[in-house]
Amino acid sequence: MSILVEHDKRRQEILTHALDVFIREGFENATFQKIADHCGITRTTLYVYFKNKKEIFNYSIKNMLLGVERDLLRVKGDKSLHSIEKIRKVLILIMDRLEENRRLLSVSLNYLRYLSKSDADPDYRVRRRTIHMRRILASMLIEGIREGTIKPINVRAMDDLLYGLIETAIFRLVILKRTDVAELKNSVDQTLTLISTTRP
Prior knowledge:
By secondary structure, the chain is mainly α. The protein has helices at about 1-30, 30-40, 45-50, 55-75, 85-100, 100-115, 120-145, 155-175, 180-195.
């Protein structure tokens, strides 16, 4: 059992160090050798954990999104909150995570540019990675309509709007190099006030 724990620990350390290389070099210029050097291991050892730099990067993204999804499901299952409170908490949580992971988002943009040069469809990859998050938001909207805390609305359109706030946060953090998205958190409150059947 301890070998497995050490293996997982080493994998996490590699992901952390690799992120530094991706940020410093950009996705295209980061090499397996540079990642191994920064981790203080040989390339051969690195191959034990990952088959290439793309896999390392994808694991980094997957780790971040899995953590966010776990948090979202925890909030969704909280019976002490009504749907508007859950949605607000989820959106603020996502924006907080985006602020914490600005470095990873910056590399992600670089990676999407790299993909767009090849045959890969970056839009498809982003949608595939975020579909669970969008489903969780939509299910909370539906739950709110059913419990009467959210006005009858077009769930798909509202899901697009709420997800658009998340995309705007990413744009501001990565492209505009803002350090926080406090003004968008206020927009979350304003939007939810408009669809709520209760007064704050």
